[in-house]
Amino acid sequence: MARQAWEIPRSGPGPQRLLNAVGEPGRFPLAWTLAPEPAGPIPVEARLVWASDGAEHVRSLARAWTRTLVLVEVRDERWPLGTAWLPAADVRRLVPPSGAGVVA
Questions:
Q1: FRET partner for 91 with CA separation of 20 to 30 A, picked from 4, 22, 73, 101?
Q2: Structure letter (DSSP) for residue 5
Q3: Residue 12 to residues 6, 8, 19, 48, 52, Cα–Cα distance (Å)
Q4: What is the pTM of this model?
Q5: What confidence tens digit (pLDDT) does each residue in 49-96 have?
Q6: CA–CA distance, 36 with 70 (Å, rounded to integer)
Q7: Which of 31, 91, 40, 82 lies closest to 64 in space, CA to CA?
């Protein structure tokens, strides 16, 4: 099981490769997944696999997606690009707490 971010000893400052990041899916992928409502970034938990520090799970936002890839924000000094395309299997949508957004 992957460790949580606070459990992982950092290898030091500076960029690292994300081993599970993949290249862009291209401008016109064959099959887009329809965006759920409400439109906009979706809260997710993403599994990041760092070259030196190993795997960790982080909360993030999904900015775009296809059937097989998800563009996730990566707010970490080890990844200066800011976003990464990850396999959909490494990303799960966070469900809002029960009753959230319900007005009595």
A1: 101
A2: G
A3: 14, 12, 17, 17, 10
A4: 0.72
A5: 999 999 999 999 998 888 889 999 999 999 999 999 999 999 999 976
A6: 14
A7: 40
Taking alpha carbons only, the member of 8, 72, 17, 6 closest to residue 45 is: 72
Main-chain phi, psi angles of 96, to 5 degrees: -65, 150
Spatial distance between the Cα atoms of 21 and 98, rounded to a whole number of angstroms = 32
Give the C-alpha separation, 74 to 50, whole Å.
12
Question: Is-contact 46 86, C-beta < 8 A?
Answer: yes
Alpha carbons 69 and 56: distance in angstroms, whole number: 18
Could you state, in order of their start, the residue ranges of all structural domains in the chain? 3-23+38-93
Residues 94 and 60: their CA atoms lie apart, in Å, by 9
Mean pLDDT of the chain: 80
